[in-house]
Amino acid sequence: MIHPAGIATDDTDNIYVSSWHKLQKFTSSGELIKCIGRRGRKEGEFDDPRGVTLYDNQVYVCDCNNRRIQVFDPNLNFVRSIGSHGKGRGELDAPHDVKFDTARNMYVAEWGNRRVQVMDTSGQFIRVFGQEGEGKLCGPSGLHIADKYVYVSDWSGNCIVVYETSGQFVTSFGRRGQKEREFRGPYCITSCVDGFMHVCDFGNCRVQIF
């Protein structure tokens, strides 16, 4: 596996990983089930795939440099593509991560457009946030949704920015550095059943837990 960038698990503990222009499915013990993809722009091809998430029995993959979200069934058969290159509603630029809230809304962290865009599962625009004001983003790279809050890792801003699911800014924490609550390129965010949030602090080669 080269340059793994996104990971998700299904209800039976199968593991889905995006890597160097590929999407792979493994058992929980690490046995390869299926591998698809190569570098390209056609259906089922990728150019630097990033975040992966499972929702409603489908696999959503951020196809970063193709500026789209590709959707597959659990057997990695292509279902549809969401988005096209641009700055408008329903358009994408360098999507890095994708997550869903309990209302079936899809949130996409767009590095290129420096925003989080919210769409429905068909790709219809709902709203955007993070483009201005206190919660302005520089390079959103990771997403985590818990209850009514959206946590966004801002790689270029070296911080975590928190919003309500409505897009209303709540707070932010972090700055560039190597101490506690400081970052050098925060990336993926997740949480465990213990309620703690885990952040991949890429440049500092560590995971910080909050």
From TrEMBL:
Keyword hit for Transcription regulation: no
GO molecular function per UniProt: zinc ion binding
Family matches, as PROSITE patterns: NHL
Keywords: Repeat
This protein's record includes keyword Kinase: no
Matching InterPro entries: 6-blade_b-propeller_TolB-like, NHL_repeat, TRIM-NHL_E3_ligases
Domain of life from the UniProt record: Eukaryota
Chain positions of NHL repeats: 33-75, 79-122
Protein name per the record: E3 ubiquitin-protein ligase TRIM71
Protein species of origin: Geodia barretti
